[in-house]
Amino acid sequence: METFSFSREIPVDAEYDLVVAGGGPGGAAAAISAARLGAKTLLIEGTGSMGGMGTSGLVTAFDPMANGEEGLVGGVMREIVETMYKRGFLGPQVTPEFWRRAYHRWTPFRPEGLKLILDEFAIEAGVEVRFFTRLIDADVDGNKINGVVVNNIEGHHYVPAKTFIDATGDAVLADLCGAECREAGRDTDRIMPGSLCSLFAGIDWKRVLSEAAKSNPDTDAPAGSDPAKVDNWDKQKVHGEALKKALADGHFTQYDRFLPGMFQVGSSMGNLNGGHIFDLNALRCDSLSDGMMLGRRIAMEYTEFYRKYVPGFEGIEHATTSSLMGVRETRRIVGEYEINYEDFKARREFPDQIGVFNKAVDIHPYEASEEEYERFVKEFRNEARPGVGERYGIPYSILAPKGWINLWVAGRCHSADVQVHGSIRVMPAAAMMGQAAGTAAVQSIKTGQPACDLDTEMLIENLRENGAYLPQNTSSKTMTRN
Ligand SMILES: Cc1cc2nc3c(=O)[nH]c(=O)nc-3n(C[C@H](O)[C@H](O)[C@H](O)COP(=O)(O)OP(=O)(O)OC[C@H]3O[C@@H](n4cnc5c(N)ncnc54)[C@H](O)[C@@H]3O)c2cc1C
């Protein structure tokens, strides 16, 4: 490739204790946690709100946060969901049971509510937030970052800081620094598809739910049961029958058997997680751009599908598609530890775990084929789904890029194999990782301990003091490593 080189002088900002790149569930939780612990924290975010996929991506349901017996997710994430509940930002069917106890149950919410709550939490904690600001380069010395280059309407700026958290989802900062990363499509021959999510109005939810409860013999909920207890999976099965018919009728331009479904987020509002964009490589701008255009076209096909084929959706109105592509898989760091499927199957808990979780491995079909759909269903519903009362741990060391001094990741770009990534890439886990990374950065500043050799006993104590649910009985000053 031909190259072009240029140099220019750019303004230098005052030094921060911590710069967080990306304001999704991972980055927002990291910045809020660090600022609450007294760190001078800057959060830079490319869009105009925090929440990432949960807001700009219109992914408007938190994945399961309990295992049927106990709530697993504490700390900042629990504060977020409980505050949203009190303020009426969760779906009208949602009760605290959803996140405090229920098994494999999603908690739908309205994206505007998440935006507002994260704004409030950040302001209260004293986080300096810069929207419409992108991280574009890094100034690195060995395995230590001195500063980053950001760009916004004011042009380029150099921002020096003591510590950095990469919460971009795509490991943008880690990659720019030269930290080792794994890339879907480069290191694997397949990439999980993306989805462009949509928000809808005009849905008759009462009808949708009562049809789901009464007409689905295969449902987990007994026929005629309380519609509020019919979860998304049950509805999805009802809609699955309609989907089969629509596919047979040739309604869709692609034969996609997997429809994650429509979540109720308001009295007549719904959010669609559906319509896969296969072979999308979100690390390539051309692929991402083509994917956005295809996603918008597909969203119209799903709107018409619901209107024509599913009772209760006759008056559906498509409000909008999301402004961010729903990306499931791109780049992950190679951390001090890479959590793997054997750990998951053993329901392994770690002395340095910063969270516990119960979600199934959720690797969407890689292609629009019946075989891939069957593979997904088998894995997600049976083989790779922890049971009631089970949990497994998320160790600190998957947030520490191998050998790095003052760099952490939070959220989707953590260190895991493809299967475990398919479980913990979701919002509640991302937020737990964010709180841990933010807390670790503050500990590192106070003690001089590097990210790759942090005293994890101290970290776990700090996290527990701030509400994290960490039930391990053993502790260790040293982290889990490969
Ligand atoms: C279609 C789809 C459906 C999903 N469904 C669910 C679900 O039902 N429940 C659930 O809990 N999870 C779900 N997930 C997973 C979940 O939404 C994400 O994995 C999670 O949001 C990851 O959090 P994060 O903070 O790592 O990244 P993100 O939420 O992706 O946030 C990253 C943020 O970083 C910003 N950013 C990126 N690069 C830069 C840069 N260079 N400079 C500045 N800012 C930058 C982005 O604008 C974004 O706001 C779904 C994901 C997809 C794609």
How would you explain this protein's 3D organization?
This protein has helices at residues 25-36, 75-86, 97-100, 111-125, 172-177, 205-215, 232-249, 285-309, 341-345, 370-383, 418-424, 427-447, 456-465; strands spanning 16-21, 41-44, 61-62, 107-108, 128-130, 134-141, 144-152, 155-166, 181-183, 194-195, 198-201, 261-264, 270-273, 276-277, 317-321, 331-333, 353-357, 392-395, 407-409. The chain is of the alpha+beta class and 482 residues long. It has 2 domains: 16-186 and 330-465, FAD/NAD(P)-binding domain (3-Layer(bba) Sandwich); 194-321, no CATH class. Strands 1, 2, 5, 6, 7, 8 and 19 form a 7-stranded mixed beta sheet that branches. Strands 12-13-11-15 form a 4-stranded antiparallel beta sheet. β1 (16-21), α1 (25-36) and β2 form a beta-alpha-beta unit. α1 (25-36) packs parallel to α4 (111-125), α1 runs parallel beside α12 (427-447) and α12 packs across α13 (456-465). The relative contact order is 0.17. The model is unreliable at 217-230 (pLDDT under 50). Residues 21-27, 44-47, 52-54, 56, 59, 61-63, 106, 134-135, 167-170, 172, 195, 197, 273, 326-328, 411-412, 425-428, 430 line the site of flavin-adenine dinucleotide. Flavin-adenine dinucleotide binds at residues 21-27, 44-47, 52-54, 56, 59, 61-63, 106, 134-135, 167-170, 172, 195, 197, 273, 326-328, 411-412, 425-428, 430.
> Judging by the overall fold, what is the CATH architecture of the largest domain?
3-Layer(bba) Sandwich
Could you name the CATH homologous superfamily of the largest domain?
Answer: FAD/NAD(P)-binding domain
Task: Report the span from N to C terminus.
Answer: 37 Å
Structurally, the number of domains stands at 2
Note the total helix count.
Answer: 13
What proportion strand? 15-25%
- Total count of strands: 19
CA radius of gyration is 22 Å
Overall mean pLDDT: 94
Main structural class: alpha+beta
Which regions contain 5 or more consecutive residues with pLDDT less than 50?
217-230
**What is the CATH third-level topology name of the largest domain?**
FAD/NAD(P)-binding domain
Give the overall shape, derived from the CA principal axes: globular
State the helicity in percent bands: 25-40%
Query: Bound small molecules, which ones?
Result: flavin-adenine dinucleotide
Largest sheet: 7 strands, mixed
